[in-house]
Structures are given as C-alpha cells and as structure tokens.
Design brief:
With about 300 residues, this protein is of the alpha/beta class. Helix content is about 40%, strand content about 20%. An eight-stranded mixed sheet has the order 11-12-3-2-1-5-8-13, sandwiched between helices. Strands 4-10-9-6-7 form a five-stranded mixed sheet. The chain starts with a helix and ends with a helix.
Length: about 300
C-alpha cells in the first residue's frame, strides 16, 4: 500500500512539473543552424524511442512465451544450435543504426560550422564577442559600436561571431539560433549564426566558470535590417565613447547591466592573434588581414596624434 501511494505521488509530481515547463528553446529554432540541430535531436529521439519500444516489446514476448512452467522432474530442454540469421540481425541492425547516426552527425556538424544555408551570397555582420568574469562585451567593428550584456542583430543576414575571453574559458550560446562554442584567452574562434525571425532571445555562457556563472547571460534583440540601421544611427548620436580606462574597469570581476558605447575596445585592446576556423589556410589569411587592420589603426592613431 505504501508503495502504491509513493508511486501515485511520484506520477502526480512529474505531471505537475511537466505542465509548468516551457518548450525547450533548442526545439524552438529561429535560425537555420538551430533548425539543423533541432532536426538531428528529434531524429535521434525518434530513432531511440523506436528501439526502446521494440526491445521492451520483445522482452515482454520472451518473458511470456518462455516463462517457467511445471515439468516432469526428468525433463531436459532440447539442445538448440545458434541461428545465423538471428545472430546477423542482432549484430547487423545496431551497426546500421550507428553508421546512420554517424553520417547524420558528421553532415550536421559541417552544416553548422559553415555559413548558414541561404546566406552564402550575403555580406555577414561581424561581431566580436568577448567574455570577462561575468559579463559579455560585443564589438561591432564596422558600425564602430560596443555593447555590454546585450546584442542587437539584423534578421535575414549572416552573423559571424569572433569569440575570445578576457578571463576563464567560457562558452557562447544562443539556444534558439545555434549551438555553443568556446571562447578562450589565447585564440579567436568563429561561430556562424543567423536569425530568420525578429524576436528577443536568451544567450548565456554554457561553461561553468566560477561563482558568477549563473548570471553570465545576455539578451539578443533580432530586428529587421532597417530597424538595426536606425539603432546604429541612434547609438552613434547618443552613446558615450569607450575609453581604455573604462574598459579596464568593465572587465573587472563582477556583474553589470546593459551598457552601450561608441567605438570598440579592439582599438586599444586587440583580439588574440591566433584564430581557429577549422582550416589552416583560412587561419593564416585571417591572421594577415587582422594584422593589416591593426597596422592601419596604428597609422591612423599616429597621424591623429600629429
């Protein structure tokens, strides 16, 4: 009786918790990269569910068909040889499942690492995402803007995030737009994303990095391109410029609200020289262009000083 009561309480608790849950963000994709990952997750769940159902059905059948029965004391069960067909099925089906899932996983990995499908011919928006304990700094080199703990991005445009850290290793993640990727202090990693629909999305650090990890989050506002351009113009007119002293203050451990500046910290605190794109040729080309950009910046600073 106590066991039945405990089971009823457990079932009631599970039902109550599940009815209060919001839909999983990874299964509510708003971009092509996230859609690819959601499709793979659902395919894997469906395939594994089918396997579990078949296995338990076979188990129930075997338990019933070959259950113990009353036999004579001198009864000896018949000797049965192995069946090559059954053995082939038992070994072959798991191999086919593993091969199938491996092909799906490898293909999806290549898709999410590349420029989103449908955006290959469009100029991407480059954003440097820099983490520090426990906040995110987003630099827009082309727009000459920097934000803290929030992103403003245009829809229907490829996004190229350059990730690195000013402290411990973190992991940049916007669940509804794509998967996570590490940000490290000694190299820049690249993450390709895109937003198909306007909306507000949640981003966070998915790698535990100390006591402030739980609040190491940021907001993402995806808007049409014309609204994004209006935001850029407004920031250029109203925001204060970021200085080296101010940036040094911002990267100190602690939490901050949302901040907006003109200029970027890349001018006086450039990103690491090392790059990781999955291709050595791309790395070298990107490093050369990165060095040329900083050379031009240094020359401009010298002329300004004179």
């Amino acid at each position: 009786m106590k066991l039945k009561g405990s089971l009823l309480v457990l079932i009631f608790t599970v039902i109550t918790v599940l009815t209060g849950c919001e839909p999983l963000m990874v299964l509510d994709p708003k971009g092509p990269q996230a859609q690819t990952q959601a499709d793979v997750i659902l395919l894997s769940i469906g395939l594994m569910s089918f396997i579990v159902i078949v296995v338990f059905a076979m188990l129930a059948y075997m338990l019933i068909k070959y259950r113990a029965s009353k036999q004579k004391e001198d009864y000896e069960p018949p000797h049965i040889e192995g069946n090559p067909i059954v053995e082939g099925i038992v070994v072959g089906i798991p191999i086919l499942i593993v091969v199938f899932l491996s092909i799906v996983s490898v293909r999806s990995n290549y898709l999410v690492e590349a420029t989103p499908e449908g955006y290959e011919d469009k100029e991407p928006l480059t954003i440097y995402a820099t983490s520090s304990n426990w906040k995110w700094h987003f630099s827009y080199p082309e727009e000459n803007i920097e934000t803290v703990n929030y992103l403003y991005i245009p829809t229907d445009r490829a996004l190229e995030f350059k990730l690195y850290s000013q402290g411990t290793i973190t992991s940049f993640w916007i669940p509804q737009l794509g998967g996570q990727k590490y940000a490290m202090s000694d190299m820049v990693t690249t993450l390709h994303l895109a937003a198909d629909a306007p909306g507000e999305y949640m981003g966070r650090n998915a790698n535990f990095n100390g006591e402030g990890f739980a609040e190491n989050t940021f907001n993402v506002n995806a808007v049409p391109q014309d609204e994004f351009d209006e935001w850029v113009d407004e920031v250029q007119e109203t925001a204060d410029p970021i200085t080296e002293e101010k940036y040094d203050e911002l990267v100190e451990p602690g939490h901050l609200g949302q901040l907006t500046f003109t200029g970027t910290h890349l001018e006086f605190s450039p990103a690491p020289e090392g790059h990781h794109h999955g291709s050595s040729s791309e790395d070298s080309e990107d490093s050369e262009s990165h060095g040329e950009e900083h050379s031009e910046t240094d020359e401009h600073s010298e002329h300004s000083g004179h």
